[in-house]
Amino acid sequence: MASHGARGRSGGRPTLEEVAARAGVGRGTVSRVINGSPRVSDATRAAVEAAVAELGYVPNTAARALAANRTDAIALVVPEPETRFFAEPYFSDMLRGVGAALSDTEMQLLLIFAGSDRERQRLAQYLAAHRVDGVLLVSVHADDPLPDMLAQLEIPAVISGPRSAAETLTSVDSDNYGGARQAVEHLLGRGRRTIAHITGRLDVYGAQRRIDGYRDALREAGHAVDELLVEPGDFSEDGGRRAMEALLARRPDLDAVFAASDVTAAGARHVLREAGRRIPDDVALVGYDDSAIARHLDPPLTSVRQPIEEMGRAMIDLLLAEVADRRPAVSRELEPPRRMVLATELVERASS
């Protein structure tokens, strides 16, 4: 009996035609089976799959992508410095979710930083050459030109967190407003009355929604909103330290702090301890994200959990749907952008 290895009749790599001849079908039928088309009978599919296994045929994904005017590549674009990406758990959790969603596809993931003007210019040239099928945008600020550039290039894109209520791109976000309300209502329920808030970057829509939730929770509980208890931060640990120092100088009587991220809460905790404030006896502390940092602080940090990995998976699902939608951009513009908002959950720990 002849032995069939991974070489075709010519001694090279097996071809699509050789698979078709072995299976006794046409070349187009083999292509449909390889691409998962349902327009093939079970018997024919089994014959083609057997021929593929016998010959050791490996599809030429590059050629297939070129023929379909596809690159089989997705770019995850982060308009932040690399140092912030590797310092904050939010980004690694997002990357984990995106990677998990792509693991069952043939898509490659490219991680691109665009935190400086030079990096943005280089990215613009790269995307203008249509080297990716779609783009995921993470941590976008209100004045960032990247979303509009993607729209002009007609590249499918999904954004993590809209830039505003009028966002034109497909977006995936968590319920920032509801999460902030949960945090403040929890602190009020623990008898705290002088509750400060360290914000995130105020050019990020999610940070704005967290302030809204903070203020509305206080108002609905019958408390006046004291703006001296609100201090801008930037989601970083250093920002949390600076903000906490300013708040203690202005309002030394504060008895609780709601921080816009766990990293920010870690910075605030350091300053509170230096000032001799016990957590939670003197000052209760709540963060946001429910990252590994929250579990490892002393005392463990109460935090609002947003499903970051699930957000990453949802972004991929929406983006792949847009990539598959080959309609002209004009017809797509007539439809409202798709928006997905995932629920948050307060995880109570010893800090509050």
TrEMBL record:
It comes from the Bacteria. The keyword Transcription regulation applies. Residues 14-68 form the HTH lacI-type domain. CDD domains: HTH_LacI (cd01392), PBP1_LacI_sugar_binding-like (cd06267). InterPro entries: HTH_LacI, LacI/GalR-like_sensor, Lambda_DNA-bd_dom_sf, Peripla_BP_I. Keywords: DNA-binding, Transcription, Transcription regulation. SUPFAM superfamilies: lambda repressor-like DNA-binding domains, Periplasmic binding protein-like I. GO terms for molecular function: DNA binding. This is LacI family DNA-binding transcriptional regulator. It comes from Streptomyces virens.
